[in-house]
Design goal:
Blueprint lengths: L1 H22 L15 H29 L6
Helix pairs in contact: 1-2
């Protein structure tokens, strides 16, 4: 369960990078609705920020649960 949170955070970061790259005309086909669309730069940035927060929380939870005695889990 702990690793799923980290995987979700990492996936959000990757999605945010793709959205941002498409909005800056660096990636994807020109027929895409995201291509050269500045509003997707903001959307991609938000995905990256949320992904980093979720990833950090997942790492913190894993560290906290590692040092808890098994009887308290």
């Amino acid at each position: 369960m702990k690793i799923i949170v980290e995987i979700i955070g990492f996936a959000l970061i990757i999605a945010g990078l793709i959205f941002t790259a498409q909005s800056k005309s660096l990636l994807g086909p020109q027929s895409s609705f995201m291509y050269n669309n500045p509003s997707w730069t903001l959307n991609g940035s938000m995905f990256i920020i949320v992904g980093v927060i979720i990833l950090i929380l997942g790492i913190i939870f894993r560290i906290i649960l590692r040092f808890k005695p098994k009887s308290e889990r």
